[in-house]
TrEMBL record:
Protein name: Glutathione S-transferase domain-containing protein
InterPro entries, per database record: Glutathione-S-Trfase_C-like, Glutathione-S-Trfase_C_sf, Glutathione_S-Trfase, Glutathione_S-Trfase_N, Thioredoxin-like_sf
Pfam families documented for this protein: GST_C_2, GST_N
All copies of domain GST C-terminal, residue ranges: 86-206
PROSITE patterns: GST_CTER (PS50405), GST_NTER (PS50404)
Gene3D superfamilies cross-referenced by the UniProt entry: 1.20.1050.10, Glutaredoxin (3.40.30.10)
Record flagged with keyword Nuclease: no
PANTHER family in the record: GLUTATHIONE S-TRANSFERASE GSTA (PTHR44051:SF8), GLUTATHIONE S-TRANSFERASE-RELATED (PTHR44051)
GST N-terminal domain sequence ranges: 1-81
Similarity comment text for this entry: Belongs to the GST superfamily.
Length: 206
């Protein structure tokens, strides 16, 4: 059975799409818009009662939350490269994924909402700026780590890189001079062939 990924590529659904591309998995993308009536309809609420995207149906296993989905796909197909390893490596994959979800994504979301997602009259430039300022500390942590390692777990790209890079992808205002190593790491991640294929879907649908 084909993996079904619900959500337009221009949403957090890009994360499981990127993971599926990295793993070479056949999948069907059902492009539900996050702001459409379709995600509030009973048929979709039976899949994801939160009424958000993404969600997946993986041969009958239904999961929502984008980072949980990428972790599931990587671990299920561990021999394909995104999840290789020891218990120590597994722990670091979880560490970086939860770090991105708790330390970074709330701030990138705040910045994005108040720079381009909300209607102009609802945007608060002060909130956008405060999010950028607050991001300085966690991004400095990531930059210092990237100065010592080409990827988050060392020499090899894993789902940890995919998750953190995708959380940071919509933050266009990274200070290149302040976070040089972070920027180089991020470019290595998002210029991978699988990432380029995934983000091309996002551009095509825009």
């Amino acid at each position: 059975m084909t993996l079904k990924i619900y959500g337009i590529p221009a949403s957090r659904a890009i994360r499981p799409i990127w993971a599926a591309e990295e793993l070479g998995l056949p999948y069907e993308n059902l492009p539900l818009h996050y702001a459409s009536d379709a995600v509030k309809a009973p048929a979709y609420l039976a899949i994801n009662p939160n009424g958000t995207v993404p969600a997946i149906d993986d041969d009958g296993l239904v999961i929502y939350e984008s980072l949980a989905i990428t972790l599931h796909l990587a671990r299920k197909h561990a021999g394909l490269g995104l999840w290789n390893g020891t218990a120590e490596q597994d722990a670091h994959i979880l560490q970086w994924t939860l770090w991105a979800a708790t330390m970074v994504e709330p701030l990138t979301t705040q910045w994005t909402q108040h720079t381009r997602l909300l209607p102009a009259e609802q945007r608060n430039p002060a909130l956008a700026e405060s999010a950028l300022v607050a991001l300085g500390k966690p991004l400095a942590v990531l930059d210092a780590h990237c100065a010592r390692h080409p990827y988050l777990l060392g020499e090899v790209f894993t789902v940890a890189d995919l998750n953190v890079a995708s959380v940071l992808h919509r933050l266009a205002d990274l200070d290149a001079e302040a976070f040089t190593s972070l920027g180089e790491w991020h470019r290595r991640c998002v210029t991978r062939p699988a990432a380029l294929r995934a983000f091309a879907m996002r551009q095509k649908a825009a």
